[in-house]
Amino acid sequence: QHKSADGSSVPVPKPIPLESAHSLWEAILKLEEKTLFGGQSLDAAQRRRQVLLITRAFDSMGLVHIWSKETEEDVADWKSAMTPGSKELLEQSYITIHHDMQQAYAELLFANGGLSPALVKDSDLKWNRAFVSAYLSNKRDRDKEGTLDSSRMYALEFLIEHMLRGNMIPQAVTLLQDERFIKNRMDMQGWEQGTARHVKDTKLLYTRLKQSKESGSSSSLEPTEVALAVFEKITEFLCNEMAGVNDAFLEEGCRCIHEMGTSMVEMKCRDQALAQYKIALKLLLPRKVSFAYVEVYSVGVVLLESGDIQKGLETLEGCLHGAQSNNAIFSRKNMYCRALQKIGDAMSILGDYAEAFKHYDMALTAMYEESVDNRLLIGTVLHSKGRVLHKLGTIQQAIKEFEDGTRWKTLELGDCHFDLAMGHYWTGNAYADLDKSHEATVAYEDSLRLLKLNINHASEEEITARTRLVEGSFYKVAGDHAESLHAYRLALECLQEHFSHNRERIADVMHMIACVHVLMGDDAKARVMFQKSLKERDDGESNADAANSLYFLGCVYVRAEETDKGLSCLSEALSIQKSSLPDTDLMADTLTQIGAIHRSRKDFEEAMKSYKEAFRVREELHGTDDPSVATLLQEMGELMHVSGQLNEAMTYFNECLIIHRRSMNVGDVLVAETLYWKGDTLLALKEYKEAASCFDESLRIREATFGTSHPSVGDSLHKLGVAEYKCKNNDKALHCLFDALSNRKRRPGNQLGISEVLADIGDVRFSNEDFMLASQFYTDCLSILLDEYGRDHQSVGEIYTKLGATRAHLQNFEEAKTFYQRGLLIWKVKEGDVGKKVAGINRCLGILGYVTGDRPQAMKYFSEYLEICKVNESQPDVDRVRVLYLVGKIHEKKGDDENAHLLWSQAYRMYAVNGFSVSHPDLGRDLSKSLEAAESVGASFFQTVSKGLFQEVVAESDDNDASNPDRAQLIKTANFIT
């Protein structure tokens, strides 16, 4: 059933004799034996039985109505009409076919596989060819009569379509370019309706020729050349007809030429489209100046879509100038507002977002005055504005514009229209960037629903590209990255094949593919796609999209530990953001990443500069109480912590906690994170009780949020255990550390985390003087470290030192010496010969030599220790006092009393001046006893020791209070010596 252009239906056939229907069906069976019966031949009786089955089936399903012409009653016993000797009954029986129901049944059979596709295709092909041939064979006779009967009217409208359905391509090409056919069609239907029908037929021909080419046909007909030749013929006809016509006919003819230009754009023939619009423009000027701006606008839009942004912008600004001087006409045609919108789009592509917003707002202001007539365009402008806001990272405001735009369009189009699909898609993208997966999924589903329902509102290629794009985003939000990647790739292939001129769209999809690769952990492929995306964008184009791609590419490089390349990309992104964009969250993210790179390079000053700038941007965008501001304070606090500026770190952590507690639940995990870092800083400041309190609160929040098995719970337990150990709460420390060990053992691949806890449990056991158990935990820790790092890592050297200490306390001195020496070799490589750790191990080896009576070993290592302290100008400490005392004892045992007493006096002076008597009184008593032997020492010693000693000691003491125990001890000793 065909529909004519005015919407009326072509009448269906009238009732026919049943005998004729039977003859037709029997003829069809004979014709289609090969298709229906696999090549078998039926005899006459078999064919009659098949016809009987057909009739019975149709009748029982209500698809036909059989009745008697004579009595006008139903034929109840229609089977009798088919038996021999029933000719009279058969002649009187008529059949009416319910075509609409039969069509529905045929479609059902085809969909469910009950109707052979080959039969459907072959029947359609043969019927259409027969129709065309029958019409053309009788055409000459009708032409002689000179009448325009209904058959001819039907043929002028639908004959091309029947030719194409009958695969009569060459005949269709010839007829479409036939001047008489064009003239007759235009005369019968009018210019606009005739052009519209001709354009429709031409586009259908273009599609068929493309499909034929893609299937490998050897046809010499080029789809684009054929279509352009047809358009050229119609344009030539119209231009000839418009010579000397009045304004009304002039406008109508130019509208027809314009329509063909639009079709050329859809076929990607943009140069030809521009020429077409210019033909219309030339015809309109100077008689119809105001109408001519429609063509100027169209030229500008085509230039934009062709990628010639600057020329397109100049053309649209010319259109805008004309629109402003013809307000009455352009308010009616919306050209003024459309031009403003397109200029805004062009400014957005060029990165001039302030100008883009200015033009969008001007368009909206003008349209709101007559909003009832401009609903669709208002929605379009709001969508454009939302896309720019989304690019700039103002996502909440972008969502508002998207949803408002969709509401305006819905008022005009209803809620089931193709033009709403992309609005839902953009809204879904914005929600996805806010991690609101449910809202994003709903928006994507709405978009897909509309794309599938409205398959005739755009080209097949456009529908395919958009559908695959939405599917890619839908699967991405759902976490199905493989399907997302597949859909995005199909979208990219479609765009590259059919929309290669639109480099911005192609670059956007490449960026999306790269982001999915990042989510899948395939940084190498992500890097390639980000680079292709940047290359695809126009040369010299610096906008938010380019900055976005550079930012993500920089992050990929950083993750691959290629920080030089990462810093280069991030710096370039920041340069674009600062030069052409307002302050955005993306700028703050970029600055934060740059700061993190400087932090990893220990360039703390540059890192802090970046963090402070990011903090300024966040604070200006969101105010002082926003969680993103607190996150920057956290970053700055961590930076101060690792750079050793612990008090500054505490300031940042405290400010961060204030914001967190004001802006979110006290039990939030971000609060726990800040408490954890604050506790670690307090540990470094030796504020152990306060540190334990922070770790304890952090632990309670994390346990309540994640349960006891989460990694962060294990981290809090570990640090709490260390803090309790420093507070000398060893039982509680062990309880926390063993819980932390159990937590970390649940996670595969966390061996280093396990080794840290084992080492700390060893420290607590050592503190409890349970040296055997301490040694066992240290040994387990060492085994892990050797597997993870090998023999030369500093962590291995640390554990060797601790094992040396435990072996020494267990009086296994040879093993102790071996472990100390292994640790010493590692630390000399890491720190050099005068490092702090090297000094400490030398001291331990010296003590070991002293205890075991190996005086040469003791003197060797003690001497190296004292030399390192001298070179490094180390602050005096108890360890150096002890070494000086022990070296003095070695000299005493060698009979070198003078040097022994010199060393003891030096040790005692260091001991007394630095206030070690309160914390280490036993050491002071040992020194006093050794110095009491001074009575038997010769004058040379007294001259050295007593000269000015009392005055030196008192002068170096800051406290002359007689109640000071250090001062009292000094006076007593000095009096005894002198």
Mind sketching the topology for me?
Layout lengths: L15 E2 H14 L1 H4 L7 H17 L3 E5 L18 H6 E5 L1 H14 L4 H29 L4 H16 L3 H8 L2 H11 L1 H24 L8 H19 L5 H20 L3 H15 L4 H17 L3 H16 L2 H7 L1 H16 L2 H16 L6 H17 L3 H19 L7 H13 L3 H17 L6 H19 L2 H18 L4 H17 L3 H14 L7 H16 L3 H18 L4 H16 L3 H19 L4 H16 L3 H18 L5 H16 L3 H19 L4 H16 L3 H16 L5 H17 L3 H19 L4 H16 L3 H19 L4 H17 L2 H18 L5 H16 L3 H17 L7 H11 L7 H7 L3 H8 L8 H13 L1
Antiparallel strand pairs: 1-3, 2-3
Net shape: elongated
CA-based gyration radius: 46 Å
Portion in beta strands: under 5%
Mean model confidence by pLDDT: 82
**Discrete helix count:** 48
Q: Could you estimate the helical fraction of the residues in percent?
A: over 70%
From the N-terminal CA to the C-terminal CA, the straight-line distance is 131 Å
Largest beta sheet: strand ordering? 1-3-2
By DSSP, the count of extended strands is 3
Low-confidence stretches: 1-5, 327-333, 934-978
Structural class: mainly alpha
The main pleated sheet reads as: 3 strands, antiparallel
In short:
By secondary structure, the chain is mainly alpha-helical.
